[in-house]
Amino acid sequence: MTHDKDLVMVAGGVDIDVQVVGGKTEKLRVRILAVDSMQIYMALIQANDEGGLIDLFLDKPSGFFKTLTAKSQADVIELGEELNADFMMRCAARVKARREKLTPGFEEKAMKALNDQLATFLPKLLPKPEEPLTSSPGAASDKSEPSTKP
Prior knowledge:
Shape: flat
Number of helices: 5
Low-confidence stretches: none
């Protein structure tokens, strides 16, 4: 969906019709987020919290997204990302560049430390690998057992 960028900027977002659970239709504004919403936006993205993103895009209280149908939720997410993703990713790139200037190598060191922690922690959570499966039921295993037949 394409929108006149100048009109969208003046309006602060795009008004869309959403369907509320129960059948009622409402017109709500999917807004363009301000730079002061960047930390919240990035946290919701990293947490894969689409419900939180819907609430943020609509400027509604936490949990409001639950009142919308699944289709309306998807419509809000798609439009909200269309309106905001580019700007927010540019903000994140500036933050990353600023952090790298202030603390060179920080991100690389932090990722290495995280990977090291995960390497020791994740195996404890994962199930133990089972013995290899045979190609067909009743097929002989790798381990040879002495035959008891004459």
